[in-house]
């Protein structure tokens, strides 16, 4: 299966940049940097900018450019220069001097392209319908049996289902939980948990036969089957949200209490609020009450100030919710923490 790459969109046209923020280059930013295997766009941006989400401005991108996928590769050389006093980054192809990227993409080399963020942290989430319509999910084809009357199955097992209408690749899911807006109590969607992949190879009127090709944890009797989507390449440039979008973390994937770096979280904002893949949000943790003793000896409860604890990169957007990866974290992010556009830093 072709690896999904989330990579830099480099469009170095003469259009005005999408962001007018003043760029401050780090004192130790390299004048020339050779891209190496293992680099990420976020990491490279951090070599030049304290605010990596301002990377499009450094490349003079406009809003259209940000959504237009191009690629950089290990061995490419990035050159920092100044035009009318403003910093600009350009790409040098070996021996050719500074060049503007053409619209072509080296299709055969896409798997070698530098990803925006660690692809391994989110790749399992890119081709799976994490949020579904609950009614449709409850009527989807269902696993009904497997070998030796077992309830749980693994890779290589032959299992049986009811309701499958076509052969090919399918994915097994089980119900997880509804996603609810903490303020309005609106039902934002129904989250499902991925169990594994199956290939349907025999159709019957009432029972369909298939074998399991991969498992994430386990596949169980009762799991629902959803047709596997086609592989696709996705390319996101990290950037500040377009507008003053504020929301909250409403779920930490896998149900852990706190989200550290490279944890996946869900926020209560989606397409209808104009969230898009590549948006970077700051995470704000509200202050906590503490007791103090005043000068006259009285006990008093005071509220500690809130603080910014990290950054979230949005990589998958549904109608009412979005999934993001915690890229920076000075403290564990939790359900209820506020997300908002990054401060100007």
From TrEMBL:
Coiled coil: none annotated. Pfam families: LysM (PF01476). Keywords: Signal. CDD domains: LysM (cd00118). Residues 1-20 form the signal peptide. It comes from the Bacteria. PANTHER family: PHAGE-LIKE ELEMENT PBSX PROTEIN XKDP, POTASSIUM BINDING PROTEIN KBP. This is LysM peptidoglycan-binding domain-containing protein. The lineage of its organism: Bacteria, Pseudomonadati, Pseudomonadota, Betaproteobacteria, Neisseriales.
